[in-house]
Amino acid sequence: MTFKTGHVGLNVSDLDASTAFYVKVFGFDVVGESQEEGRRFAFLGLDGTLVLTLWEQSEGRFGTGTPGLHHLAFEVPDIEAVRRAEAAVRETGVTVYHDGVVPHGEGASSGGVFFEDPDGIRLEIYAAAGADERPAPTPGAPTCGFF
């Protein structure tokens, strides 16, 4: 048996704010949605493929101290795409970790930008090469650990 990730579903506190964020940063299209009170959701995709679903079913901020999601990582073709994403992320005003694009670890060429969405869900946009212009932010630990 083989598996492939189909899509990821996230609970959000403000569907409109989260949809606008993911459309701006990732370039997703809204491929489906419901505005029915108590059942609001948005399906986001690229080129007709569903990637992310947002469900307005939560309050407060994402909690990193409980079991569950650690972070979501999205790979892009090259470091230039990471830098474009970083610019879009910074325009939204959310938290950016490590002060921008960094390698995944000391001596690694792969890396990216690490940040939060409007609800505090930790995200990563990375490329397989080209992020080695700066040192890794945490010696001996992976950058995607958000330490």
UniProtKB/TrEMBL annotation:
PROSITE patterns, A to Z: GLYOXALASE_I_1, VOC
Protein name in UniProt: VOC family protein
InterPro entries per the UniProt record, alphabetical: Fosfomycin_Res_Enzymes, Glyas_Bleomycin-R_OHBP_Dase, Glyas_Fos-R_dOase_dom, Glyoxalase_1_CS, VOC_core
Taxon lineage: Bacteria, Bacillati, Actinomycetota, Actinomycetes, Streptosporangiales
Phosphoprotein recorded as keyword: no
One Pfam family named in its UniProt record: Glyoxalase
UniProt keyword list: Metal-binding
VOC domain segment(s): 4-128
